[in-house]
Amino acid sequence: MIPVISQLLQLQERDQRLNNLQRDLKDVPNLQTRAKTQLAGDQALVDAALAGMRDIEVKIKNLELDIQTRKNTIKRLQDQQFETRKNDEFQALGNEVKRYEAEVFGLEDKEIELMEALEAAKSKLKEAQAKLAVTQGLVNEELQQLEERGINLTQRITELTAERKTLAEPVDPDALNVYDRLLKSKGKAALVPMENGICGGCHMKLVGATINALRADDSIVHCEQCGRILYFA
Fold first, then answer.
1. d(CA 45, CA 37)
2. CA nearest to 26, candidates 138, 157, 181, 164
3. How far apart are CA 106 and CA 70, in angstroms?
4. 3-state SS of 167-208?
5. Where are the domains of the chain?
6. Class for the domain spanning 15-168
7. What digits encode the pLDDT tens for the residues 108-154?
């Protein structure tokens, strides 16, 4: 293997590792967003449970106002009863009192039902808050790990970038330029092995002249199909 191929293979190994690290680093914000989305779902459940509880509390308060209004009306009607001297008026007021008392009883029954619903809503809220607290802890831990991962990846990328620069310095400029162009256009590999007369990049059968040039091992040889640099596996 001619020296320049060995140099480019070392360089390619660093570039491939750099590509993987950069891809992982790019994925960190997506993972952070996904973790926060999980938290948002549990927060929404807490918000919904809290809204449901407050809605019941408002209904209870309105019901209590209705009950008190009717009780005040009953008191006023009873006072009017004691003041009247007419029997038919007394009976009419008594009927009104009974009607309002029946309404009070009905409203109080509804109030009991709402109080029971309120207790259930409080329990539901408590469960949602407990679940949120657990998720919050897990998400905080995951976010901390992701932050540390991002820092470590950035540090490793910096180190590998310096290594790559050192490895690239002694490489023939023309060969390096060709390598860089191929890596950019072909993706993960600019250099690929030849096995059994097959290009390791495009997997096409190589012509005899290309195989013979590669065996001569005195110059850079390209696949006549995809243009990648070839070397013996």
1. 13
2. 157
3. 12
4. HHCCCCHHHHHHHHHHHHHHCCCCEEEEECCEECCCCCECCH
5. 15-168, 172-233
6. mainly alpha
7. 999 999 999 999 999 999 999 999 999 999 999 999 999 999 999 99
